[in-house]
Design brief:
The chain is mainly alpha-helical and 186 residues long. It has one domain: Ferritin, core subunit, four-helix bundle (Ferritin, Up-down Bundle), CATH 1.20.1260. The chain is built from five helices and two strands, in the order βααβααα. Strands 1-2 form a two-stranded antiparallel ribbon. Helix 1 packs antiparallel against helix 3, helix 2 packs across helix 5 and helix 3 packs antiparallel against helix 4. The longest helix has 30 residues. It is elongated, with a radius of gyration of 18 Å.
């Protein structure tokens, strides 16, 4: 992954290099969530499928926010390719466990980005990462709760589906503090 300034006078910082790599992580998360949603759709668990399709769009939008940040900073960016997502699971709990692990990993990546921006004195970059830090607290909390409920349902996916429909698949208000999304949100 590479990023460059449009003018040769400004070197690319470690923060900008890590942020460019984060685009791939966000797109990979988006694809992984599509794979999870497809697994649940194949298992006739439409509420879990709907939830993870929505998560996929959210992760795609995060990648596009980063792209817009680079564009706003007058920096060229290359859109990366990603590895194939995992698509096969032994039971309905495994995708949730994977999703929680993925969100914990992304949280670590976002923390490293915020720290790097701070260490480099990149106040604009540090401010940009604040929204993502807040977002990751929410994402990890949701996946932790989903994993807990999946364990408590003792294999009764009907109860899990009801929980997801009632608690997770509800229309959320738009976050006015969210960064701009290149091309607009979908």
């Amino acid at each position: 992954m590479s990023v460059s300034t449009r003018s040769a006078a400004s070197p690319v910082s470690a923060f900008h290099q890590l942020l460019a790599e984060q685009i791939a992580h966000e797109f990979a998360a988006s694809q992984q969530y599509i794979a999870l949603a497809s697994f649940y759709a194949n298992e006739d668990l439409p509420q879990l499928a709907k939830h993870f399709y929505g998560q996929s769009v959210e992760e795609r939008n995060h990648a596009m926010m980063i792209i817009q940040y680079f564009l706003d900073r007058d920096m060229a960016v290359e859109v990366p390719g990603i590895a194939d997502p995992r698509s096969h699971f032994g039971d309905f709990r495994e995708p949730i466990k994977l999703a929680l692990h993925q969100e914990q990993t992304v949280t670590d990546q976002i923390i490293a980005l915020a720290k790097t921006a701070r260490d480099e004195g990149d106040y604009l970059g540090e401010q940009f990462m604040q929204w993502f830090l807040k977002e990751q607290v929410e994402e990890v909390a949701v996946m932790t709760t989903l994993q807990t409920v999946a364990e408590r349902c003792n294999g009764n996916t009907f109860d899990l589906e009801n929980f997801v429909q009632r608690e997770l698949n509800v229309a959320a208000e738009a976050d006015a503090t969210a960064p701009s999304i290149a091309g607009g949100a979908i």
